[in-house]
Amino acid sequence: MLLLSEAERCLSLLGCSVYDALESSHYIHREWNKMVREGGSSNDFQRIYEGADAVTDLPCFNFWEQLQEALPEVKVNNEKLSFCFDM
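Below the sequence we write its predicted structure tokens.
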């Protein structure tokens, strides 16, 4: 049974393409491993989240300031640290 966070469930119901910890570890783990080890640029964040409508969970929580800088259209929910891109 796959458990979704409330944020992911709600965003998915709205038709958003959501990247959470599962998607990040499955689809973009190499990019995240590189950014954790070496750091990432704004271009890196823009490239790996191209096509995503929202990002939740880890590892993005550790990089929320860089994500917000790289993607100024991102709306940050500081209470739960969820990110929603313009749809």
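The chain has one domain: 16-84.
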